[in-house]
Hints:
The chain has 135 residues and is α+β, with helices and mostly antiparallel strands. The chain has helices spanning 19-37, 55-71, 75-95, 104-114, 118-121, and strands at residues 4-7, 12-15, 43-45, 50-53, 124-126, 132-134. The strands form 2 sheets. A 4-stranded mixed beta sheet has the order 2-1-4-3. The chain has a two-stranded antiparallel ribbon with strand order 5-6. α2 (55-71) runs antiparallel to α3.
Amino acid sequence: MSYIFTVTETDEDVWEPALAVGQLFMGGVDALSSRILKTPSGLHDVTGDWVQMDTRLYGEFVTAALRRRGRTGHPEMIKLMDGLLPVMVMLADKSGATVTASTPTERVYLEWARDEDRVLQGHVVEMGDGTVVVR
């Protein structure tokens, strides 16, 4: 059994992870949306295994999450977001949602998140002098 993510505007299925993967992803998105960012995610869970996506709202949500990730210095928040945000970016890319990076840190993070070998590369860190490194 799988979880199905469908773009509302086109009725196109863009991601079909295993049920437990979809449930874990949606749990993280729901927490980030309602408790941290306090903004709609653009993902509407229709039946518990089928999600309809509003790509405009979803793009805005992922952009807000990217900005939040770039502003935090809390190591556990960084690790938690680094588990969820790359999957959010992948889904945005698959669905055609627009994610906008407005700082060098955000641009480097998007490159890192889109790199399939990112797990081997470490985490994106902004240094005190404004430079951005991957550790």
